[in-house]
Design brief:
The chain has 113 residues and is mainly alpha-helical. It has one domain. The longest helix is centred in the N-terminal third of the chain and has 33 residues.
Amino acid sequence: MATVRQRRATGREVGKAWVGIAAGPFAWFLHQQVAYALAPLACAGYRWAIPTAGALCALLALAGAALSWRAHGGAAGNDRRFVAAMGMWIALLFLLAIAGQTLAAFVFTGCER
């Protein structure tokens, strides 16, 4: 009978470990593109368009960090624990980048050229 440390990881468990590595940069890229597309709308008076997009993308990065955190606690091997920890920290790093870009939307109006 295999113990928890000896069993093979399923694809879902391995995917949870890697999701933070992918979700953080993807959320940042998505925020970058959406904020650029919404800049004319923000200039037209809809000032909350970019911060709303930032909040949604921040939630996506946080979800990736949370899934990596859960995978870190349940990972059996050191390699999966390392990947899960790196996924969590990478997602949080990109969350910080999203927060910085979102805060800039409160300072600038979108009409600067």
